[in-house]
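Retry 2 of 3 after timeout on previous attempt. Resubmitting structure tokens to design endpoint.
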């Protein structure tokens, strides 16, 4: 009986980690969509009806909204399972790590020594928080 309970707890833990990673990926790709949208510069002539019409039919705009919504729904589940003081820093930190890597791949943004040091301190902070 005890063995089954440990197994069930482990399955729940892995499931929650997968949900966390899925929420982080949704968040990262939503931010990439917003960056793609920003690069298209839809607000170059200000905010007016034509701009809103362009946004209404923009794939990046809708993908960002949908991905943020999915991340939001998953976050509700995650926040129920983990302490807020632990999961929020982990969520934000891992998002930072992935954004640094993906922005380099997708947009050619530079990875500087400062960013690498920040990344290392972030990883150390997550590790300390989870111990």
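Retry 2 succeeded. Sequence:
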């Amino acid at each position: 009986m005890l063995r089954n309970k440990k197994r069930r707890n482990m399955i729940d833990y892995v499931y929650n980690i997968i949900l966390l990673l899925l929420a982080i990926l949704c968040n990262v790709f939503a931010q990439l969509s917003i960056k793609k949208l920003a690069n298209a510069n839809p607000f170059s002539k200000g905010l007016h009806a034509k701009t809103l019409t362009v946004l209404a039919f923009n794939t990046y705009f809708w993908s960002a909204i949908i991905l943020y919504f999915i991340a939001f729904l998953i976050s509700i589940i995650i926040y129920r399972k983990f302490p807020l003081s632990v999961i929020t820093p982990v969520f934000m930190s891992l998002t930072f790590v992935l954004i640094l890597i993906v922005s380099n791949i997708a947009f050619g943004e530079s990875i500087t020594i400062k960013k690498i040091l920040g990344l290392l301190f972030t990883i150390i902070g997550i590790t300390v928080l989870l111990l």
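Attempt log closed. The first helix runs from residue 2 to 40.
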